[in-house]
Structures are given as C-alpha cells and as structure tokens.
Specification:
By secondary structure, this protein is α+β, with helices and mostly antiparallel strands. It is 20% helix and 41% strand. A hairpin with a 2-residue loop joins strand 4 (50-57) and strand 5. It is elongated.
Length: 80
C-alpha cells in the first residue's frame, strides 16, 4: 500500500494543493480545495493507496482527513 500526503498551503490569497515539490494553482475557497483533494484521495484509495490531507494554518500542519483503502473481501471457500 502506498502512502500519499497532500498539503493544502496558503498561496496568493487562496489555497493550493501541494504534493512534494509540486504545487497547483490556488483555490479562492478553502472548502473547494478540500473537496477536490478529498475526491482525489477517495479515487486513489480505490486502488489501495492511503492518503493524508493536511492543511497548513499559522505555519502549523493540521490533519484534515485520512482516507484509507477499503479492505478487500476474503474469497469464500466453496464447499461441496
């Protein structure tokens, strides 16, 4: 399972989604940035990735959400 972290960082009067050294364009509304990041995280979780969404406010990180993959059901044994 891959662990991914997205940071929501203040930028140009709005909020940008950042991962590693890559920083996207700013969203004017924090809720829009969270909603898009959550949608991405849920998509990735379908493929087994664990995703943290962290917002930086006042120079400090705060965990917004941790999206975990759904456990795969165990195959059922066939009985004769």
């Amino acid at each position: 399972m891959t662990h991914i972290r997205y940071d929501l960082v203040p930028r140009s009067g709005g909020w940008s989604i950042s991962m590693g050294d890559a920083v996207g364009p700013p969203y004017l509304d924090f809720a829009d940035a969270v909603a898009d990041t959550t949608a991405i995280a849920r998509f990735l979780a379908q493929y087994g990735d664990s995703v943290e969404i962290v917002a930086w406010r006042g120079g400090k990180p705060r965990l917004i959400e941790l999206v975990q993959p759904e456990p795969k059901p165990k195959p059922q044994r066939r009985t004769s």
